[in-house]
Amino acid sequence: MSEFEFGLIVAGNAFHRWVVHCMSAAGLKDLTPLDVLVLHHVTHRARDKRLADICFIMNIEDTHLVNYALKKLLGLGVVASSKNGKDVTYAATGKGQQLVQRYREIREACLISALKADDSLNRDIGELARLLRVLSGMYDQAARSAASL
Fold first, then answer.
1. Interval 129-145: pLDDT, tens
2. 2-117: which CATH architecture?
3. Of 56, 61, 58, 62, the residue nearest 38 (C-alpha)
4. What are the structural domain ranges in the chain?
5. Taking Cα atoms as reference points, which of 1, 65, 2 lies closest to residue 33?
6. Would you call 84 helix, strand, or coil by DSSP?
7. What are the pLDDT digits (tens) for 68-80?
8. Nearest to residue 100, comparing CAs of 36, 16, 15, 29?
């Protein structure tokens, strides 16, 4: 398990470096990895999202972290908020949508094209994604157990 956890740390750091550099290349600099991921989620499926929805999907307990990212994205004009009754929802602005689209183009050119060359790697990544979802549940359960000690 230690080998897996070390691999997860290294891969997580590489992924965070990637999303920041890719978004910077798309035209939006000085974001944290969480800022980039929140922008992507707010843009996903072109549906308004509540803070609680974003935290739930991203499996983030500390809503303050996501709220801070949303405030930063609002200030940059890539996300807009609206009030629906008691709920505040967030959606990408036209500028935010354009930047995410440019990010996708860069991702396709720099990352996805490399995967197209190896079908077995694509199958392995699909299986790895499944295993990561299973392990995520195991880690969540272990965290709940540890919190009650």
1. 999 999 999 999 999 99
2. Orthogonal Bundle (1.10)
3. 58
4. 2-117, 118-149
5. 65
6. strand
7. 999 999 999 999 9
8. 36
